[in-house]
C-alpha cells in the first residue's frame, strides 16, 4: 500500500472500531459508569493503571475497584479513613495489590488537594505534540508523598524510555473529543494533537506489518517513531488510529 492507500485503509478501520460497540469489551467502560468529572477521571485513571493482561480480568477487577470505593471514587479519594484503606488490602490484579491501591488513593488525594486535580497536572507540562514530559512530571508529583517504593513501578516514565502504554491510553480517554462515544473527551485544556498512541504488543505488531514502525521493542523510541507516522496522516487527531491498530491486532489477528 502507498501512503494514500494506507491512510484510507486505516481511516476505514477507525470508523469500524471507534463506536459504542467497542466499549463493552474494553476497560474504557469503567469511566463511562460515572457522570461527575472527578469520578470519571479517577475511575479512568485507576482502571487504566491495571490495564495489562486478560481484558476480561482487567474489566472485572476494575469493577471491583469501584465497588471497594462504594462506587463513589472522588468522594472516597477525598474523604477516606485508614479503615477504608485497610479494606482495599484484599485487592489484587497481577502485581498490583491492595497496598498499591491504597498508595494510589493517597497519591490522587494529594493531586486533588494540592495540585488542582488530574487535568491541571497533566495540562501544566504539556508540550507541542507531546505529553510525555507531562507524564514524567505527573509521576514525580504523584509520589511526592510517603509511599511504598514498590508502587512506583505501576506508573511508567517516558523519560526512562517507556512507551507508557497505560497512561497514554488514559490520556486518550480523557482528551479525545469526537461524537463516537468511546473516548470521553472531558479535558478541554489539552489538545488531542498532543496525544501519543498507547503502544502495546497488538498495536506494535500491526504497525510493523504496515511499515509504520521499524523498531522491534515497544519502548519510548518506538512510540516516537510511530507517533511521527500517525501525525503525518492526521496531525490534529493522530491517536484515533489506535482504534485501527488495536482493532486489527485484537479482533482480526492481523
Sequence-ordered SSE layout with sheet pairings:
Layout: H1 3-17, H2 37-49, H3 55-68, H4 73-79, H5 82-87, E1 92-93, E2 96-97, H6 98-114, H7 118-124, H8 132-142, H9 165-175, H10 201-209, H11 220-233, H12 241-250
Antiparallel strand pairs: 1-2
Question: Could you explain the architecture of this structure?
Answer:
The protein is mainly α and 254 residues long. 44% of the residues are buried. It has one domain (3-250). It has a two-stranded antiparallel ribbon. The protein has helices at 3-17, 37-49, 55-68, 73-79, 82-87, 98-114, 118-124, 132-142, 165-175, 201-209, 220-233, 241-250, and strands spanning 92-93, 96-97. The protein has twelve helices and two strands.
Q: Could you spell the SSE succession in H and E letters?
A: HHHHHEEHHHHHHH
pLDDT < 50 stretches: none
Largest sheet: 2 strands, antiparallel
Rounded average pLDDT: 97
Overall spatial form = globular
Oligomer: single chain
Please work out how many helical segments DSSP would assign. 12
Taking Cα atoms only, what radius of gyration do you get, to the nearest Å?
18 Å
**Structure summary, number of beta strands:** 2
Number of domains: 1
N-to-C CA distance: 15 Å
What is the helix fraction of residues, given as a range? 40-55%
Beta content comes to under 5%
Amino acid at each position: 500500500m502507498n501512503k494514500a492507500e494506507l491512510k484510507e485503509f486505516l481511516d476505514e478501520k477507525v470508523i469500524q472500531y471507534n463506536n459504542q460497540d467497542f466499549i463493552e469489551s474494553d476497560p474504557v467502560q469503567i469511566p463511562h459508569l460515572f457522570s461527575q468529572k472527578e469520578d470519571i477521571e479517577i475511575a479512568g485513571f485507576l482502571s487504566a493503571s491495571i490495564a495489562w493482561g486478560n481484558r476480561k480480568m482487567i474489566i472485572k477487577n476494575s469493577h471491583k475497584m469501584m465497588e471497594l470505593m462504594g462506587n463513589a471514587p472522588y468522594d472516597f479519594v477525598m474523604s477516606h479513613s485508614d479503615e477504608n484503606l485497610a479494606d482495599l488490602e484484599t485487592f489484587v490484579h497481577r502485581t498490583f495489590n491492595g497496598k498499591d491501591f491504597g498508595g494510589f488513593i493517597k497519591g490522587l488525594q494529594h493531586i486533588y488537594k494540592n495540585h488542582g486535580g488530574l487535568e491541571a497536572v497533566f495540562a501544566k507540562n504539556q508540550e507541542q505534540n507531546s505529553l510525555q514530559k507531562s507524564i514524567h512530571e505527573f509521576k514525580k508529583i504523584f509520589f511526592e508523598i510517603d509511599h511504598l517504593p514498590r508502587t512506583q513501578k505501576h506508573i511508567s516514565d517516558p523519560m526512562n524510555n517507556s512507551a507508557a502504554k497505560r497512561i497514554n491510553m488514559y490520556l486518550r480517554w480523557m482528551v479525545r473529543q469526537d461524537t463516537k462515544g468511546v473516548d470521553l473527551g472531558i479535558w478541554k485544556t489539552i489538545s488531542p494533537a498532543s496525544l501519543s498512541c498507547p503502544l502495546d504488543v497488538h498495536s506494535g505488531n500491526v504497525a510493523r506489518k504496515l511499515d509504520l514502525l521499524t523498531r522491534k521493542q515497544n519502548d519510548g523510541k518506538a512510540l516516537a517513531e510511530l507517533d511521527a507516522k500517525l501525525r503525518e496522516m492526521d496531525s490534529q487527531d493522530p491517536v484515533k488510529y489506535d482504534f485501527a491498530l488495536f482493532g486489527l491486532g485484537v479482533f482480526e489477528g492481523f
